[in-house]
Design a protein that fits this description.
The protein is mostly helical. It has a single domain, classed as Up-down Bundle (Growth Hormone, Chain: A), CATH 1.20.1250. It is built from 14 helices and no strands. Helix 4 runs antiparallel to helix 7.
């Protein structure tokens, strides 16, 4: 592979990473306007607009190895991307909540098809010594996709509720790049998830699950805590939250160099970052605490995701896309979906249901559990 072709292929795969975070996060700023439009719909159905794609992503990840055996890489990527654009922008034309949710479910299927490719193809086409840097870039693009999509969707929603869904037209960029530069090779298909596969890769799979449970405490609780404890405007709170994504993006850009310099201690930085971040947020709602806590959580997420992807891809080799990457993707979205169902009861049990900061305090406890998990599985980390 020439240097020029390698660069084009890298950019193509990273363009897929730009899209995967947009399944739910992109529409979050418009949810209040959407709720007003579908005023007669039950509140649960409105919440499913954001959470339903995650469930379909998990289910699609479980059959992804089978899909690899049926379709070549370009065909699989194009199928997922075209479905992504059609289902995502199709919500623009939805005139009832049932059709809207059906399209959101199809969007989840599409992300389930492309998410493992966004990291697995890096392991397939590039040698191990380049994978840490590329996984960092993939995570950085994922964070940048969240920033761009969130801001665009918020602006478009000011026109009308359904305009927010036009943000999924960004998928057409990846469609063109895949058509031009992605080779149409057949990845080795697998039989799907198994206890043997989970046993082999459990340090990364469990770690990814814990990272997402911890990280999603922040987007689900930060604005509520900041509004109740400070005089900050909604725009100021939004900027702080976007700032976290920017921090994670910058960490992703330098992740490869960090792995070269601190490879033996990298596994402990994400849990330590989450512990420090949530400890600061649990101490109060002053602006310095909010800024410092957000920065630590951004650092933790910016390191945790690419680190776990890197060690798993190095262990799986060229078969990563059809073996461990679907498992990691499923763990990621399962952690997102279950985070409030685990954190809220834990916080209420330990610190009382009336404590608005209890989710952050629960995050400290879960951060310690993640730190213990990283230490107990240290001998299974391929980068040791």
């Amino acid at each position: 592979m020439t240097k020029t072709n390698s660069g084009k292929l890298t950019f193509t795969i990273l363009s897929i990473s730009l899209l995967t975070v947009m399944a739910g996060a992109a529409i979050a700023p418009a949810l209040g306007i959407i709720r007003a439009h579908f005023a007669e719909a039950p509140d649960m159905l409105i919440q499913l607009i954001v959470s339903l794609p995650a469930l379909l992503i998990i289910l699609t990840n479980l059959v992804f190895p089978w899909l690899c055996g049926k379709m070549k890489t370009r065909t699989l990527a194009l199928s997922g991307l075209l479905l992504y654009v059609i289902a995502g922008t199709g919500c623009f034309f939805a005139d009832n909540i049932g059709l809207l949710l059906a399209l959101r479910a199809l969007l989840g299927v599409s992300v389930g098809m492309i998410m493992p490719l966004s990291t697995g193809l890096l392991a397939y086409y590039f040698p191990p010594e380049k994978q840490a840097g590329l996984m960092g870039l993939s995570a950085a693009m994922n964070q940048m996709g969240g920033v761009v999509a969130t801001l665009l969707a918020g602006l478009l929603a000011n026109i009308s509720w359904n305009y927010a869904f036009l943000v999924y037209l960004l998928g057409l960029i990846a469609v063109v790049l895949v058509l031009l530069f992605l080779p149409n090779e057949r990845l080795k298909g697998g039989s799907g998830p198994s206890l043997t596969l989970l046993k082999r890769f459990h340090p990364s799979v469990v770690g990814m699950f814990l990272v997402m449970i911890l990280f999603f405490i922040y987007p689900t609780r930060f604005a509520i805590s900041a509004h109740s404890g400070t005089d900050l405007s909604n725009n100021a709170i939004t900027l702080i939250m976007v700032g976290l994504d920017v921090v994670a993006f910058l960490i992703g850009l330098v992740f490869g160099k960090m792995m070269q310099s601190f490879r033996h201690g990298m596994k402990y930085l994400p849990p330590a970052g989450f512990i420090c971040g949530f400890l600061l947020l649990s101490m109060g709602s002053s602006l310095p605490l909010l800024l410092a806590g957000s920065a630590f959580i951004g650092i933790a997420n910016g390191i945790g995701v690419p680190y776990l992807n890197t060690i798993a891809s190095m262990k799986a080799g060229k078969e990563a896309a059809s073996t461990v990457m679907p498992l990691l993707s499923a763990a990621l979205y399962l952690g997102q979906f279950l985070s409030p169902l685990i954190v809220t009861p834990l916080g209420a049990l330990c610190f009382g249901a009336d404590d608005l900061l209890s989710p952050f305090k629960a995050g400290v406890i879960l951060g310690v559990i993640y730190l213990l998990q990283a230490w107990l599985t240290r001998k299974k980390q391929v980068v040791e």
